[in-house]
Amino acid sequence: VIPNSLETALVVARYGAEVLLLDNDGGTARSVVDILERQNALMRLKYNGKPLTLACNIDQILIVVACQPAPQWELVDQLIGTALNHDIGLLILAHKADLPCFGELDNEIGYYRALGYPIAETSLHDVSSIDALRQRLGGKTNVVLGQSGMGKSSLTDHLVESSDIRIGALSARALGRDTTTVARCYPLGDATYLIDSPGIRNFVPARQNLQHISQGFEELSQLAETCRFSNCGHVNEPDCAVVQGLAAGQISERRYASYRLQLSEYQRQKNQGGGVTR
Ligand SMILES: Nc1nc2c(ncn2[C@@H]2O[C@H](COP(=O)(O)OP(=O)(O)O)[C@@H](O)[C@H]2O)c(=O)[nH]1
Ligand SMILES: [Mg+2]
Q: What distance in angstroms lies between residue 152's CA and the mean position of ligand 2's atoms?
């Protein structure tokens, strides 16, 4: 039995060697029951530009988006790409469904739906939507990601408080001074975990090559098959099927702009010689 093992687990999860499972039977002593091999790891950049593990051994990324504050869809695209690159499951949460502006999400959500990504509409004010969400988290280690203000922490609190697990002393406490950067892992029972993430402005997508970027844009990749050059970057190459498809409305302007943004970020990181991580 390791005292304060939740804190230990947070440290270990964060520094990324492995994940500890907690046995919280009885709620007093917490023991480490297993140490897992690291299957995947989500990184963020530290201020010195070095990568730091945010969370590891993730089964499902919950991408939270709401109409308020104004959503940054490029971030949603980036997170979709991250899940696909890591071969981690993804679930897009169209959250705050109770807000009058909710319909403003329709276009983009509809676009993602057409691409085949799973979507759940949730609201803290709609118990059944949270129950349905809980079903989709079962047996998995889930991490909530998304821009600040989308409702990640309140959603996490809600799920934790309404779970059967007596969280009490297990409530994840911030680790010292790092309150804004630490991810917190909450057990929801039945081998289900939920990790709330802090601000992800410095979130580093694991993109080592251009394929990692195009993998996040399936509609673009499909068109790319008929580009003249197999290594076409879809910017100003001749006979580019993507640029033609854009003109023909087969890919949205917004998604294409998002692709271009990732492309330039990737080039910038590469020129700096850092930031590209596994
Ligand atoms: N109307 C509405 N507001 C919500 C909902 N979920 C969260 N919020 C609010 O959104 C704001 C930001 O929530 P927070 O959890 O701090 O977002 P985070 O930055 O993503 O962790 C808070 O004022 C919450 O009360 C919801 O389902 N409906
Ligand atoms: Mg938060």
A: 5
Q: How far is the CA of 201 from the centre of ligand 1 (A)?
A: 18
Mark the residues whose beta carbon lies below 5 A from ion ligand 2: 152-153
222 lines ligand 1 (CB under 6 A): no
Is residue 190 helix, strand or coil?
coil
138-167 confidence digits (pLDDT tens): 999 899 999 999 999 899 989 988 776 544
Alpha-carbon distances of 182 from 90, 167, 173, rounded to whole Å: 22, 19, 10
CA separation for the pair 52, 197 (Å, rounded): 13
Residues 6+ apart with CB under 8 A from 131: none
CA 224 distance to own-chain centroid:
26
In the chain, what percentage of residues exceed pLDDT 90?
Answer: 52
- Separation between Cα atoms, residue 188 and residue 162, nearest integer Å: 9
Q: Is the CB of 68 under 6 A from ligand 1?
A: no
User: Considering only CA atoms, which residue is closest to atom 2 of ligand 1?
Assistant: 96
pLDDT tens digits, 55-105: 878 899 999 999 999 999 999 999 999 999 999 999 999 999 999 999 999
Closest by CA position to 198, among listed 44, 18, 61: 44
